[in-house]
Amino acid sequence: MSAEEEQLSAQTVLEATGGVLIQGDARASFTGVSTDSRSIKPGELFFALRGGNFDGHRFFAEAMLRGGKGAVVEGEIEPAPDKTIPIIKVTTTLQALGDLAHLWRKRHPIPLVAVVGSNGKTTTKEMAAGILGKRYTVMKNPGNLNNLIGLPLSLLKMNSTYQVAIMEMGMNRRGEILRLTHIAEPDLGILTTIGPVHLEGLGSIEGVMEAKGELLQGMGARGRLIFNADDPRVVQLSNRFAGNKTSFGTKNPADWMAADIRIQEDGRVFFQIQGPAGRIPVSLRIIGRHQIYNALAAAAATAHLGLGMEDIKDGLEAFEPPPMRMELTALGKGITIINDAYNANPQSMDAALRTLEEVTGKRKIAVLGDMWELGEYAEQAHRELGRAIHEKGINLLFLLGRFASQVAEGATEAGMDPRAVTIGKDHHAVSLHLSGILKEGDWVLIKGSRIMKMEEIIKELRDAL
Fold first, then answer.
1. Average pLDDT score, the chain
2. Are 162 and 85 in contact (CB under 8 A)?
3. 26: burial class by Cβ within 10 Å (0-12, 13-18, 19+)?
4. pLDDT per residue as tens digits for the range 286-305
């Protein structure tokens, strides 16, 4: 692709969006795209997005003052002082952003892997990117920029230097995965798990399943589906897919499997990974038995893109977890923190607690915040969480949030000593109590939904110990 073709022009935006140029020159070009007037870089095109609590049109002037060289808007707007700056009017700026990303993706027809599921998306993406990086220049969406804004912005950074892309896709409403799939046109689709997440918007686990299944609908019979053979709902969805399929799992027969699974004293995982090309030992640096599924999904996807077993082994063994996702932090006095504070739902809580159960330590302490977006299922889910905590032999339980009492009730009803359960007033109160009782050899799991900001407890503990 020539340098000219790599440039994003106003004419390209008009072509992709069906918009109308209401000011400026269609031959103008941009260095990139931004939706945030605070971080826009000189030369970028500003998309004035609208949402329930914001309106980017209010920040058009600021975006231009900061160096923006054009804008995509929905309605009438105060003309820019520089009349050469292109302003393009569209019906819906969010739709236009996706349409532009889709055209840009088609101009860069490299293999693209999409990762969808209730849990494991980011870890699977990062594992696969690490393996692919052994041979290719890899593009991925940073962090969890996986929604209807983040994914298009990521795709619009594509250029001719990239040889393969891997993108996670997230949602909390029906129709979002379908739209993301249409925008990205993946060649491989990974379906990790289906669990009780976003129930507030989706209503039921069946609603979650149908929403995740939009990946298959969007792919049609094109490409290949890589799916978890141990998740009944994922299997049910896979049966609908008319294209090529590859399975992974540890229990049911699958194309990619793990054998000889061993959990080390520090929680790290060793296993034999077995695929169509053979069998090879893998020792993960990340803790948790559930990470095996992420590793198998990454292995299956990268093998289809030409990576061999040695590449897969090297990539997986070099993998370090993203921040706040089963991240180990050593504090003073020989205390180990499992920092899984990025997010939480019933499925990921169960996996994290199982990891805490399996490590070797003097005491096992769970410090948990609320799980959000569970709708009518919230109280029941938190009570069930309490019962699971006792069943997994957790010694001490610290709770924070609106549903802390339901977790405490579930734990004590299941037989946990009420004296082992503490409901904190805030992060500082929990940190203060913990810092006074932690002993050498303790393992502490800290986890909650993103809104709970449970990592603040870790910061205070680090200062105190």
1. 95
2. no
3. middle
4. 999 999 999 999 999 999 99
For domain 3-97, give the CATH number. 3.40.1390.10
Instruction: Spell out the SS3 assignment of 402-415.
Output: CCHHHHHHHHHHCC
Beta bridge partners of 273: 258, 280
Average pLDDT over residues 82-86: 88
| Structure confidence by residue, pLDDT tens digits, 60-73 | 999 999 999 999 99
Domain 327-464 has CATH 3.40.50.2000: no
Query: How far, in Å, CA of 366 to CA of 255, rounded?
Result: 36
- Assessment of whether the complete model's pTM goes beyond 0.85: yes
Give domain 108-318's CATH superfamily.
Answer: Mur-like, catalytic domain (3.40.1190.10)
416 burial level (CB within 10 Å; 0-12, 13-18, 19+) = buried
Query: How far apart, in Å, are the Cα atoms of 383 and each of 387, 405, 413?
Result: 7, 9, 9
For the chain, give every residue range classified as CATH 3.90.190.20: 327-464
Kindly state the tokens that stand for 64.
């231009």
pLDDT digits (tens, 9 = 90+) for 97-122: 999 999 999 999 999 999 999 999 99
